[in-house]
Amino acid sequence: MLLGILCLIGLGITSLFIGVSDVSIASLWASGSENRSVQILLASRVPRTLAVILAGASMAIAGLVMQMIVRNRFVEPSTIGTVESASLGFLAVTLLAPEWPITAKMLVAAVFALAGTALFLRILRLVPLRDPLLVPLIGLMLAGVIGAVTTFFAYRFNMLASLLAWSMGDFSGILRGRYELLWIGFAGMVLAWIAADRFTVAGLGA
After folding, report:
1. Taking the domain 34-200, which CATH number applies?
2. Selection from 187, 195, 188, 175 nearest residue 48 by Cα
3. What CA–CA distance (Å, rounded) separates 49 from 53?
């Protein structure tokens, strides 16, 4: 675990100095209140690195919680329709309310993701599960249906390129003021760690 933490810190620091603009340790120590390297670091590099770490950690914890609830190690957000539901929500709010700020769009996407996950759990309650492999198969079918609907509307309104960018997780455009909502995911991650035993009980059907 210690080795993993050290690797994470090392990769995070390395990420701060990777990008189109040249930022080095020497340039950060340069004098002047309008230091361009410091501005780039605070406005782009630090938010980008934090966004990657927060998103990755939140996805990992979300997958672990789902595995504990449904008691199936093949389940994760990308196999049960959660990711596809979030994409559908983001597409819907972009089409219906393009003037909304990015924070509001992220909240709508989160609501759609929760709704998609709830639908998956509801389907599991209605289907007799005689084989553990049925759980991820049901999730993949649900994800396929939601993804097909999303792709249809994205094609219909000429937004396939934007949909691809959202789905691929492009962090190059992350700037200060456009990632802070991910701290909610960090808070949820901490709560999930504290209440891990409760999720285990939920997975037993209690």
Report:
1. 1.10.3470.10
2. 175
3. 6
pLDDT tens series, the chain, 206 aa: 788 889 988 988 888 888 777 777 766 776 554 577 788 888 888 888 888 888 888 888 888 888 887 888 888 888 899 999 999 999 999 999 999 988 888 889 989 999 999 999 999 888 887 788 888 899 999 999 999 999 999 999 999 888 887 777 777 777 777 677 778 778 877 887 777 666 654 444 44
Alpha-carbon distance 116 to 121, whole Å? 9
The candidate with the shortest Cα–Cα distance to 116, out of 75, 74, 150, 84, is 84
8 Å CB contact between 116 and 149: no
Place of tokens 């190059």: 172
Q: Scanning the structure block, which residue is given the tokens 């993804």?
A: 147
- DSSP helix, strand, coil percent of the chain (3-state; round to 5): 75, 0, 25
Q: What are phi and psi of 179, to 5 degrees?
A: -130, -10
Pairwise CA distance, residues 186 & 147, whole Å: 27
Helix spans in the chain (H): 2-16, 25-28, 36-40, 46-70, 82-96, 102-126, 134-156, 160-168, 182-194, 196-203
What are the boundaries of each domain within the chain?
34-200
Return the closest-CA partner of residue 23 out of 33, 31, 15: 15
Look up tokens 């950690």; give the residue.
Answer: 57
